[in-house]
Design a protein that fits this description.
The complex is a heterodimer. Helix content of chain A is 21%, strand content 32%. Classes of the chains: A alpha+beta, B alpha+beta.
Chain lengths: 367, 126
C-alpha cells in the first residue's frame, strides 16, 4: 500500500522533519529541535500540528439525521447549538469504543473529526445508519491545530476575530478568499484552535503562522502533551475492549441521554449503575523510570491488578507519567502500586488526571 | 580523543592506565532523541564484554547500554541519572556513564577507532 502524504508534506521536509508512518500516512514525528523542546515550545509559546491525516466527515443537517445520529452517539445533539462541538464516541453494543471523535453542529451540516486509523470503519458504521447521499468524507481538506498560550494572538494576526471564539465552539472565517472553519479546541491541554481549510492554501496558511511566531511541532511532542493532559490516545488508552465508563470518560455521555437507546446504551447504563471492574487512572512512578504501554501493574501483595496503556516522560511535570487500567478496588488516588519494568518492581502511585493543569480559555464572546 | 575506541553498539571508551571511561556516542544520542532516563550498573559490580550495563530511555523508546569491555565498575556518573538531558548535551565528554577496572586490555583490540566508527555509523544509519 502506498504511504499517503498530507498537503503539508513538502513544508515538513523543508523544516527538517523526521518522518514516521502513522495510520498509513507519512507524518512528522519531530523536527530538528527534538521532542522535549517542541513540547516546551507548545506549553510556553505556540505550536502548529498537522493533523490532516484525521478524517473530516460532513453530514447534511436535518432533524431526521440528528435522530439517526443519536442512535449511534451518546451525545445530546438536539441541544447542540450552531457552532458548538462535543467529544463523543462510536461504540459497539457491548460498550467497546470503535473510535472517539469531535462532532460540531455547523449551520447546515455536522462536521465529525475522526481518528486516521479508524476513519474508514467509522464511515461504514455511519453509512449503515444514514443514507449515503448525505455523507461526505473530504479528501481535499487539511486540518491544522495551533496550540499554546500565544496561539490566540498569533492566529488573530492571520484570521481576524478568531480570538472571540469560546472553548469547544467554532465559526466560519476566511483566509485569502477561502472559507475556512475554525474551532477553539485541541488535544494538548493548552488553549488552541483547529483549522479546517482547503489543501490548496494549507502551506501558505501555516507559513503565515510561522511568520507570526508559531513553530511546527511533531507527533512525538503531541503524544507527551496529550498524556500530560490526561487525554486518551485511541488504540492504546481506549479501544474496542474498553467502554467510556471504564475509560473514566462518562462525562462525555450526555446526562439526559443515559436512559435513551443508542448503540452500547444498555451496557453503559448497567456500568454506571453497578460500577465497573477496571478503571482508567493516572499512574506516577516514584522514580524517573518510564513504564511503557503493556507494563504490568501489581498490588502490594504482588497480585497483578492491571496494565499500563500509555507511558512516557512528561517534560512539563519533569517526571515519568503513565495511564492504565487498574482493578476498581485499587483505583483510588494515592493507592500504592508496583510497575514491572525490566524485571524490577518500581513503586508508583495512582494519581488524579491530568498530570498537567489545563489552561483552556473561555474567550470573550461567541461569534 | 584520538585514542578513543568505539563499539558497534555505539559506546565509546578511553583508557587511563587500567581504568576505562565509557559512554555512548554522539551518533547514538542523535538516533535516540531526547534522553529522559538513565540507569547505570552498580558500583563494585562486574560486567562482561558486550553484556548490558545500563539503560537509556528517550521520549520514544528504551535502549540497553552495553559495555564494550569486561571489568569491575569503579565509579558511576550520578549526574546523568539526576539530569539525563546532559547525555544529549555532552555525550562524548562530561556525560560519561561509568568507569571500569579493565579485566583484559586485549579486548580493546576488537573495537573500532574513530575513523572506522564514523564510517560504520554512516553506513548503518543510511
Amino acid at each position: 500500500m502506498n504511504v499517503k502524504k498530507t498537503a503539508l508534506y513538502e513544508l515538513h521536509k523543508k523544516h527538517n522533519a523526521k518522518f514516521v508512518e502513522f495510520a498509513g500516512y507519512s507524518m512528522p514525528i519531530q523536527y530538528s529541535e527534538g521532542i522535549v523542546k517542541e513540547h516546551n515550545t507548545t506549553r510556553n509559546k505556540s505550536g502548529i500540528f498537522d493533523v490532516s491525516h484525521m478524517g473530516q466527515l460532513f453530514i447534511k443537517y436535518s432533524d431526521e439525521i440528528t435522530d439517526k445520529l443519536q442512535e449511534i452517539l451518546p451525545t445530546d445533539l438536539k441541544n447542540l447549538k450552531i457552532n458548538q462541538s462535543k467529544y463523543s464516541f462510536l461504540m459497539k453494543e457491548n460498550g467497546g469504543i470503535y473510535d472517539d471523535l469531535i462532532i460540531t453542529r455547523m449551520k447546515d451540516q455536522y462536521m465529525i473529526i475522526l481518528n486516521a486509523a479508524c476513519k474508514q470503519n467509522d464511515l461504514q458504521i455511519i453509512k449503515n445508519k444514514l443514507n449515503d447521499q448525505s455523507l461526505d468524507m473530504k479528501n481535499d481538506l487539511s486540518l491544522i491545530a495551533i496550540q499554546g498560550p500565544e496561539s490566540k494572538t498569533i492566529l488573530e494576526n492571520v484570521v481576524l476575530n478568531v480570538s472571540k471564539l469560546k472553548f469547544m465552539n467554532g465559526g466560519n472565517f476566511s483566509f485569502k478568499n477561502n472559507e475556512i472553519f475554525i474551532t477553539r479546541s485541541g488535544y494538548t491541554g493548552e488553549d488552541g484552535f483547529e483549522i479546517s481549510l482547503s489543501d490548496k492554501v494549507a502551506i501558505s496558511f501555516v507559513e503565515e503562522l510561522i511568520l507570526k511566531g508559531s513553530t511546527l511541532i511533531g507527533l512525538g511532542a503531541r503524544d507527551t502533551l496529550r498524556l500530560e493532559a490526561g487525554l486518551c490516545l485511541y488504540g492504546h488508552d481506549i479501544n474496542e475492549n474498553t467502554s467510556p465508563v471504564e475509560a473514566n470518560l462518562k462525562w462525555a455521555i450526555s446526562k439526559n441521554r443515559i436512559n435513551d437507546n443508542f448503540t452500547g446504551s444498555q451496557k453503559i447504563k448497567k456500568q454506571i449503575e453497578e460500577g465497573v471492574s477496571k478503571l482508567r487512572v493516572g499512574i506516577k512512578p516514584e522514580t524517573r523510570v518510564i513504564a511503557r504501554e503493556s507494563t504490568k501493574i501489581f498490588d502490594e501483595k504482588d497480585n497483578e491488578i492491571g496494565k499500563v496503556t500509555s507511558g512516557t516522560f512528561g517534560p512539563s511535570v519533569n517526571a515519568s507519567i503513565a495511564m492504565g487500567y487498574i482493578s476498581n478496588s485499587h483505583s483510588k488516588t494515592d493507592t500504592k502500586v508496583f510497575l514491572e519494568v525490566r524485571g524490577k518492581k518500581v513503586p508508583a502511585n495512582v494519581c488524579d488526571l491530568p498530570f498537567y493543569k489545563k489552561s483552556y480559555v473561555k474567550g470573550e464572546a461567541n461569534v | 580523543m584520538s585514542d578513543t575506541k568505539f563499539s558497534k553498539e555505539h559506546e565509546w571508551i578511553t583508557l587511563d592506565g587500567e581504568v576505562g571511561t565509557i559512554g555512548i556516542t554522539k551518533h547514538a544520542t542523535e538516533m535516540l532523541g531526547d534522553i529522559v532516563f538513565a540507569e547505570l550498573p552498580e558500583k563494585g559490580s562486574n560486567v562482561e564484554k558486550d553484556g548490558t550495563a545500563g539503560v537509556v530511555e528517550s521520549t520514544k523508546a528504551a535502549s540497553d547500554v552495553y559495555t564494550p569491555v569486561s571489568g569491575e565498575v569503579l565509579e558511576i556518573n550520578q549526574s546523568i541519572v539526576d539530569d539525563p538531558s546532559k547525555i544529549n548535551a555532552d555525550p562524548e565528554g562530561g556525560a560519561w556513564f561509568f568507569k571500569l577496572k579493565l579485566k583484559d586490555k586485549s579486548e580493546l583490540d576488537t573495537l573500532m577507532n574513530k575513523e572506522e566508527y564514523d564510517k560504520f555509523a554512516k553506513e548503518t544509519s543510511a
